[in-house]
Amino acid sequence: MTEDVTAAAKGADMLYTDVWISMGKESESAERIRELSGYQINEALVKFAKPDALVMHCLPAYRGKEI
Q1: Which residues contact 48 (CB under 8 A, 6 or more apart)?
Q2: How far apart are CA 58 and CA 22, in angstroms?
Q3: Distances in whole angstroms, Cα of residue 41 to Cα of each of 24, 27, 46, 51
Q4: In this structure, what DSSP letter does residue 4 have?
Q5: Main-chain phi, psi angles of 36, to 5 degrees
Q6: DSSP class of residue 66?
Q7: Three-state DSSP class for 16?
Q8: What is the pLDDT tens value at each position of the chain, 67 positions in all?
Q9: Pairing between strand 14-17 and 54-57?
Q10: Euclidean distance between CA atoms 35 and 66, whole angstroms
């Protein structure tokens, strides 16, 4: 377990993320975005995973936030 997303992604077969803001919790949006923005799966992070790694999301995905 780590808070270092780069270390976690190195050599990974799969990267998985969840929504940051669950339905019914929209009032927590600003706080959650502030707290979780460092845990985004993006192109730069995917480069640390294996070339054929899968990227998964539980949906709905909000581009520019968790993925």
Answers
A1: 6, 9, 10, 11, 12
A2: 11
A3: 24, 23, 7, 15
A4: -
A5: -105, -5
A6: T
A7: strand
A8: 899 999 999 999 999 999 998 888 999 999 999 999 999 999 999 999 999 999 999 888 888 899 9
A9: parallel
A10: 11
